[in-house]
Amino acid sequence: MTETTKPYDSTLGAALLLLPTLVVLVVFLYYPALLTFRLSLFQTLLLGTERAFVGLENYVGLLGSGAYHGSFLISVAFAATVVLGTLVVSLFVAYLLFQVEVGESTYLVAAIWPYALPTAVAGTVLLFLLHPTLGIITHYVEALTGVELDWFTSGPLAFLVVALSAVWKQLGYNIVFLVAALNNVPTTLTESAKLDGVGHLRLLRRVYLPLISPTLVFLVVVNTIYAFFGAFPLVDLMTSGGPSGATNLLIFKLYRDAFEFSSLGSAAAQSVVLFVVVALLMWVQLRVSDRYMHYGA
Amino acid sequence: MATETDRRSGASTAVSFPDVSGGQLLVHGGLVLSIFLMGLPLLLALVMSTQTTTEVYQVTNLQIGSDGLSNYETALSTYNLGQYMVNSFVMAAVIVVGKVALSLLAALALVYYEFPYERAVFVFVLLTLLLPVPVRIVPLFQLMADLGWANTLLAITGPYIASATAVFLFRQHFRTIPSSLVENARLDGVGPLTFLVRVLIPMSRGMIAGVAVITFVYAWNQYLWPLIVISDQSKQVVQVGIRFLQGASQSGLTQWGLIMAGAVIALLPPLAVLIALHRPLLETFSLQQK
Amino acid sequence: MSQITLDGLTKQFGDVEAVRGIDLTVESGEFLVFVGPSGCGKSTTLRTIAGLEDATEGRILIGDEDVTGLDPAERSVAMVFQNYALYPHMTAAENMTFGVRSSFESDAAMQERVQEAAETLDIPELLDRKPSELSGGERQRVAIGRALVREPAVFLLDEPLSNLDAKLRVQMRAELLELHRELETTTVYVTHDQTEAMTLGDRVAVLDDGRLQQVATPQELYDYPDNRFVAEFLGNPAMNVLSVDVVEGETTYAAEHAEFRVPLPDHHDADLSRVAGSVAQFGVRPEDISVRATESGRQTSDGTAADESATAPQTVGEATASQTVGEATASQTVGEATASVTVTEPLGESLLLHCDVGEDSLRVKTQPRTAVSPGDTVVLGFDRDRLHLFDPDDGTTAYHSSPKGEAAPTRTVAEMQD
Q1: Are C215 and C278 members of one domain?
Q2: How far apart are CA C68 and CA C70, in angstroms?
Q3: Are residues C74 and C204 in the same domain?
Q4: Any idea what the CATH number is for the domain that residue C161 is in?
Q5: In terms of DSSP bridges, do strands B249-250 and C203-208 run parallel, antiparallel, or are they unpaired?
Q6: Number of structural domains chain B divides into
Q7: Is C47 close to A7, i.e. CB distance below 8 A?
Q8: Which of C44, C70, C87, C163 to mutate against chain B (most B CBs within 10 Å)?
Q9: What is the predicted pLDDT for the residue at B90?
Q10: Which residue segment(s) compose the domain that B79 sits in?
């Protein structure tokens, strides 16, 4: 192909078109983010009216804080549970959608609706339906298993209930992407495997999963970010971080430290830690998708 | 992806499945069961939302309640959910329109203008993906206070109307449009804004609809930021409004029927948008994957 | 009516020089075709004339006006693109009028112009359709209609027929010629297809590597290429070029190859002193080589020749010794090269032979149904009027065996019957 020049060359015009976006990004994203880094080096006194430079003391404080360690571990475990739960269930549904010969698009719309489910709504509905004494689902599960599901007092159970709510909300998004990825697998591969008499589970494990792994990595990243940041309403509405800190995710701790206890410097340091988490996840995704792009080319 | 599903959609309306093998029966069974389980909490919430508090406390009562729609009326009027819904709608509409408009302009510049540091500008926009609200929450809150925006619509919309994702998606889409179209326009002296309005936007309807759905669902889902920056209850959005319902009690009993009604109300708008616009949404997602 | 003048036109993309100093005048009302291999700079040149690219150096004049720095919209040009460049959400009529500057007094006047253009192109019933409802050929008509409505001083066409199938391409080619005869608008046309270039152009400009190689009428380009690139680029199959020594003969110079010797006719336009006594590239087109069978050839190919004689109307065996079966007639044939046939390609209207002549190989176009088989030995002769010598260093033409006159030399009917 011949090289071509872009049609419009007014630098001023381009600047004017980009200006609104750049102003918003600078004022509301970059500038506050930079202030966060700065604030993390200060200690706030008297409800934030005075500040003192403390260097890395806020970070040292986090390193030495048992509560923060606990919150960090819980967040990581929570992310792992949500990622695993979401991917297993969505993969199951997506594989069925991929296999079904009649009515795929109808099933698809019926299966992706949780994409529209607000997290606060998911938390509220499950808070009631899984309520230890009033929840109808709890009632029947207890009747069937004989186990008492009092997650208002049991930490691990509360953790699972919050994770379940997060998985429910994330299903729609994951199913959309997995069905798309499965449909992109060349049919010739499936056909040749079927001719060889390969069973469904082996087909999924040996043929599909490797081929859709870029999408899987993408979804791992998306679900992890959701578990770290998006699950806030669940904790706020369902457990308030309890019982005894079992659901005290980093984001919830950050919120309380900043807006209930007004320790802004420490909260800012926690924000910086979260930034590192996002940056790592994005880096992983870029690296992996890059590798697969080369692989494919 | 959409075309993949469309391929079989013609058959989806068939009432009977003549050639269904045993395997396919299992697949259908599995799908119906999965979808039923995914929808079950919502069905139960719907049923409970019609019950009186007494009926709700009879845990296994699954009959349509005697309260009918009165829980909905109470939630909307007495508990101000109506006002919160309006607030949410205004917020979501401003964010959708603002984000689509700003991102279209930015993508126009990135794709059709020759200017210095073009690549750097694009990377600068993309890097904001690293900065979700929690990463900048404390200074952002202080900034709103300094600007005098606390408790205003500006506070819950302003930070959201620019977006790396939307700019990225529009840029990808514009790049698939043959350059000869804009060159033809240029030979006639058609300016960039006319070209945007008369050509690019009509040619990007699906993509704009997809970005609008993604943005609407995202905006409607906002919880943490409005919770922090809006302290005047009458200006609150509906997601946080559900939280206020939790305090609703009648003679010491939490009014769960009322709360379920509130939850259903807060779910309906994004659900309706998703169902109405699922096609462009799926197409947009498939572009995002590339 | 406007002529286009390119004065030292140069276009660089970063470090890459796409167009390197082109000087050219397109006469008013002329149909000029740019042809060359991909990446030769032809499209860039066209786009620079249009103003879609800024010239790095040099000037562009349309009529008497220097348009080098002007916006495309101020140049009074209309362009037709390879991919039609139609807006998919607009009807054909809307496509034709979108962006037209308000040079029309009224909407009605513009609609009338659209109708007129549509009738010229035979598409009035398609005006309300969207591009997706049109075939490739119909889309290209709408795109041309777009250009017509603008009534520009200059038409610029960038490979407009390349997306059409072969049959439609031939038909549209004829229609474009007719349209140009009617409108007499100065037209610049870019193509990589030499047939298109030869059939459409009043003159053809051959480009390679950003440089103008030669501009001339199609026949002159074919008969008197200025350099080896033009000689080999035009013509299919391409001209044969092989190394020879230019030696002084008894009356004239001769091209001497290990396997043959061809006398080079002298004429007023010839100056062989430049290459005399040294190596040169000897060029001759496949159709300018004639074929004779040899005794030994007949013997070696006995088996196959006998098989084919049943169907072939004329076999080498039946030909008299002096009869040639090549397209060149005997009286003008010079030289005699013994060659062995390696491959035969029947092309329908002709038969293409690949022959080994010593170390070299030659393509020879001969009459169809000639009974020659791979392995046969044949004797080749060369048309004395159609020989070329190129400088071995820079590829420029050193010699044409017939003088380049005002008109290309033609043979009379009598000569042909001779």
Answers
A1: no
A2: 6
A3: yes
A4: 3.40.50.300
A5: unpaired
A6: 1
A7: no
A8: C87
A9: 96
A10: 74-288
Chains that touch C (3 or more CB pairs under 8 A): A, B
pLDDT tier, C173 (very low <50, low <70, confident <90, very high otherwise): very high
Residue that terminates a domain, selected from C203, C231, C259: C231
Burial of A66 (0-12, 13-18, 19+ CB in 10 A): exposed
Residue of A nearest to B180 (CA): A7
Return the H-helix or E-strand segment holding C51.
none
Domain that holds residue C353: 232-417
Contacts C54 to A, Cβ<8 Å:
5
CB atoms within 10 A of CB C206: 27
B28 located within any domain: no
User: What does the block give as tokens for C389?
Assistant: 């010598």
Q: Is B178 on the interface with C (CB under 8 A)?
A: yes
Query: What confidence tier does C301 reach under pLDDT thresholds 50, 70, 90?
Result: very low
Residues 6+ apart with CB under 8 A from A288: A213, A214, A217
CATH number of the domain within which B195 lies: 1.10.3720.10
pLDDT tens profile B187-210: 988 889 999 999 999 999 999 999
Q: Which chains touch B (3 or more CB pairs under 8 A)?
A: A, C
Is B212 within a domain? yes
pTM of the model: 0.85
- Mean of per-residue pLDDT scores for chain C: 85
> Which residues of chain B does A29 touch, with a Cβ-Cβ cutoff of 8 Å?
128, 131, 136, 159, 162
Looking at beta carbons, which residues of chain A come within 8 Å of B167? 21
Residues C311 and C213 in one domain: no
* B32 domain residue, yes or no: no
pLDDT at A265 over 50: yes
Q: Tell whether C269 and C389 lie within a shared domain.
A: yes
- The whole-number average pLDDT for the span B158-182 is 92
Q: C312 falls in which pLDDT band (50, 70, 90)?
A: very low
Distance from CA of A264 to the nearest CA of B (A): 7
ipTM of the prediction: 0.90
> Which tokens belong to C363?
């393509």
Ordered by start, the domain boundaries in chain A are 11-53, 62-296
CA C81 to chain B, closest CA, distance in angstroms equals 7
Whole-angstrom CA distances from B280 to A222, B118, C98, C149 are: 21, 29, 28, 36
Mean pLDDT over the full length of chain A: 87
Q: CATH 3.40.50.1820: does it fit domain A62-296?
A: no
Mind listing the pLDDT tens digit for each residue in B64-120?
A: 777 778 889 888 888 889 999 999 999 999 999 999 999 999 999 999 999 999 999
- Looking at C179, C211, C231, which one is the last position of a domain? C231
Which chains sit next to A, with 3 or more Cβ pairs under 8 A? B, C
What is the CA angle A208-A214-A218, rounded to 5?
A: 125
Task: Please report whether residue B18 resides in a domain.
Answer: no
In a shared domain, residues C262 and C226: no
Residue position matching structure tokens 């037709």:
C80
8 Å CB contact of A25 and B140: no
List the single residue in B180, B189, B202 with the smallest CB-CB distance to C73.
Answer: B189
The residue type found at C397 is: T
Residues in CB range of A268: below 8 A, 6 or more apart:
A36, A37, A39, A40, A42, A58, B138, B139
Q: Is C103 exposed, middle or buried (0-12, 13-18, 19+ CB in 10 A)?
A: exposed
pLDDT for res C1? 59
The pLDDT assigned to C131 comes to: 94
Inter-axis angle of helices B256-276 and B81-112, nearest 10: 30
pLDDT tens-digit map of B221-232: 999 999 999 999
Q: Are C102 and C222 in a shared domain?
A: yes
pLDDT the model gives residue C130: 94
Size of interface A-B (CB pairs under 8 A): 313
Of the candidates B130, B186, B224, which has its C-beta nearest A7's C-beta? B186
